[in-house]
Amino acid sequence: MVMEKVKRLDEAQGRQLLAWLEGRHAPAPGAHEPLGAMAMLGFARRIHPQPRTTAQWMEELRAGEQP
Fold first, then answer.
1. What is the C-alpha radius of gyration for the chain, rounded to an integer number of angstroms?
2. Nearest to 41 by CA among 61, 64, 57
3. Count of alpha carbons within 13 Å of 51, Cβ hemisphere only?
4. ∠ CA(18), CA(19), CA(22), 5° rounding?
5. Buried b (16+ CB within 10 A) or exposed e, 17-27
6. Buried residues in 42-56 as b, exposed as e (16+ CB within 10 A)
7. CA–CA separation, 56 vs 43, rounded Å?
8. Which residue of 48, 50, 51, 67 has the fewest CB atoms within a 10 Å radius of its CB?
């Protein structure tokens, strides 16, 4: 039944259908990369590869505030 419907499409409709199908199967750009706060986890790991506690992070942040 589906094949019969596709066979009856004119060329413009066929092109439109193919373009839509290709878009549905293509992965979204950057879909594998985290966004927002999750992206910062990877960034922090590049600077400090060892896990740190919140207290350790706060100590470092506060040290930068002191004149």
1. 26
2. 57
3. 1
4. 85
5. eeeeeeeeeee
6. eeeeeeeeeeeeeee
7. 17
8. 67
pTM over 0.85: no
One-letter identity of residue 64? G
Count how many domains the chain has.
1
The two three-digit tokens of residue 51, written as one number: 């896990």
Q: Tokens for 54, please give them.
A: 């919140």
Q: Which residue has the tokens 């992070």?
A: 57
Question: Per residue of the chain (67 residues), what is the pLDDT tens digit?
Answer: 888 888 899 999 989 988 888 877 766 665 677 777 877 777 777 787 888 899 998 998 899 887 6
Q: Which helix (H) or strand (E) covers residue 47, if one does?
A: helix 37-47
Domain assignment of residue 53, given as a range: 2-65
